[in-house]
Amino acid sequence: MNTTKTSKVPVALTIAGSDSGGGAGIQADLRTFAFHCVHGTSAITCVTAQNTLGVTRVDAMAKEAIEQQIKAVCEDIGVQAAKTGMLLNQEIITTVVKQIDTHAIPNLVVDPVMVSRTGAQLIDDEAVKTLRDSLIPLATVLTPNRYEAQILSGLEIKSLDDMKAAAQTIHEKLKVKAVLVKGGGMQGSLRGIDIWFDGKNLETLFTQLVATKNTHGTGCTLSAAIAANLARGDSLFKAARQAKEYVSYALNNALDIGKGQGPVGHFFPLLKK
Ligand SMILES: Nc1ncnc2c1ncn2[C@@H]1O[C@H](COP(=O)(O)OP(=O)(O)O)[C@@H](O)[C@H]1O
Ligand SMILES: Cc1ncc(COP(=O)(O)OP(=O)(O)O)c(N)n1
User: So where does this one cross the membrane (predicted)?
Assistant: First the structure.
């Protein structure tokens, strides 16, 4: 009799937008899950027409379609961790919150996609409020960039000390288990530094600044890698530290494609130099 070799693998879910250019969003998340040997599942919230130069169109998915994607994955396959990315508007955020609650999704990493690294606001004020009041309190790990951390903490962030103060304020105000304030939007070597706070430990996660214009997808990759590590059973801090190192390798092997900011290279051990 032929026997088939089957494997039990950890499963993670990404609830995020599609990037037609393949650099960020669902596409980056699924590659990151695969790199970590985690089976990737997805619920697409919106579809962007996007390339290395920017976004030219965004179409929201119907809320019923988002509900059904999450339900289909959770009721049959089950997930050990999930991440949220681009949620676009208040209706989508509310829908996602309800599904996370209904299916008691564990180990939730929230990348509060609100403002780009260059400071451009990506969702309206109503959506920012709903994100802060209803999704963020469910987060196990929250990963705001500089500008998102400014909005959530109410503090101006210009220095390493400001990043530390923002991480502590966000933790206290928003009741997340842990927060990682990302430094990609800072100046100089601070761009390679993130600040971690979990209510007890305040840690500086340092990697060398990578001098490349090809940084598209770093935020998505970081949050997806944290979710993958949590799905594999790592502790919160270990999951974040290892994810930060993964992003650094991926940046060092970024892809020079397109006319603008190319994406990070997710499968760097396989990329030919
Ligand atoms: N040029 C760089 N060199 C090293 N690390 C970087 C660089 N740019 C971004 N990062 C890292 O990438 C991750 C994503 O950060 P950031 O760009 O701030 O997020 P987002 O893409 O959500 O705006 C962080 O860990 C940050 O430190
Ligand atoms: C569909 C989609 N989702 C998220 C983003 C933002 O990507 P992120 O990795 O946070 O930011 P950059 O590092 O690319 O600035 C996106 N562009 N598209």
Answer: none
Structure-block tokens of residue 239: 């999951």
Domains annotated for the chain, with CATH where assigned, are 11-254 (3.40.1190.20)
Q: Is the pTM of this model over 0.95?
A: yes
With a threshold of 0.90, tell me whether the complex ipTM lies above it.
yes
Q: How many residues does the chain have?
A: 273
Catalytic entry in 219, 221, 244, 262: 219
Mean pLDDT by groups of 10 residues along the chain of 273 residues: 74 97 97 98 96 93 98 98 97 98 98 82 89 97 96 97 98 96 94 97 96 96 98 98 98 96 92 66
Answer yes or no: is the C-beta of 10 below 6 A from any ligand 2 atom.
no
Q: Per the structure block, which two tokens stand in for 164?
A: 């530390």
Q: Is 94 annotated in the active site? A: no
Sequence-separated (6 or more) residues with CB below 8 Å from residue 77: 11, 39, 41
Closest C-alpha residue for ligand 1 atom 24: 182
Question: What tokens were used for 105?
Answer: 């999704």
